[in-house]
């Protein structure tokens, strides 16, 4: 299983803003941290990977097939937790997951099985029937990760999964990501290096649209000293 980003470039405003410039990456199962200062191109890369944008040049392929040709087959293996997702505060945890399962086109049977399992996985069984408005920040992030896992995706993209959390909740989310990463390609965009320390096999560092480094987290930390 692999995701190959082959010489991908993307610019905005008719080429005036180069958001990504010749990015070459191969991702295999495991956790990857996606780091870089504001404007580095992280959101653009994520938008390309989830199919919200098309590359100007280069291709992204999943198991050697261009994702733009895979279409629905690709969306079925993809799980995505966007940044600052709209939460339906009046929904209970269960209702939210049912709603998201319907959006993803899961059958009732598939949805029932996944939702029961996932509420356990994210440890929210006891809060399943409470409204999202009563959830803590960490609980909200966990239910958002759960919705990204509904279709048991082979590729999981988490955009700032610890945004707005305190250090203790961040560690919980980090440890949790490690537990769900088995046999999946997991890409975690974050500003907080400690989020992916210990759990990432590699860190991908972008700057001004270029790939600066792709290496083990310990090497990144050393280079920043
Ligand atoms: P992040 O926290 O991921 O760095 P940004 O603030 O860079 O978020 O971007 C948030 C969203 O706004 C992204 O989807 C990005 O594509 C879009 N965006 C960023 N910069 C611009 C811009 N100059 N014009 C229009 N949209 C932008
Ligand atoms: P990051 O997520 O790392 O902050 P982005 O991918 O959002 O980076 O942005 C990369 C560059 O592209 C930035 O200069 C940003 O302002 C610009 N950009 C992003 N989205 C848009 C957009 N929709 N229109 C114009 N410029 C954009």
UniProtKB/TrEMBL annotation:
Record keywords: S-adenosyl-L-methionine included? no
Q: Which residues form the ABC transporter domain?
A: 3-225
Q: Which GO terms describe its molecular function?
A: ATP binding
Identify the keywords attached in UniProt to this record, alphabetized.
ATP-binding, Nucleotide-binding, Transport
Classify the source by domain of life: Bacteria
Q: Does the keyword ATP-binding apply?
A: yes
Protein family membership: Belongs to the ABC transporter superfamily.
The protein's name in its UniProt record: ATP-binding cassette domain-containing protein
Q: Which organism is it from?
A: Paenibacillus septentrionalis
Q: What are the top taxonomic ranks of the organism?
A: Bacteria, Bacillati, Bacillota, Bacilli, Bacillales
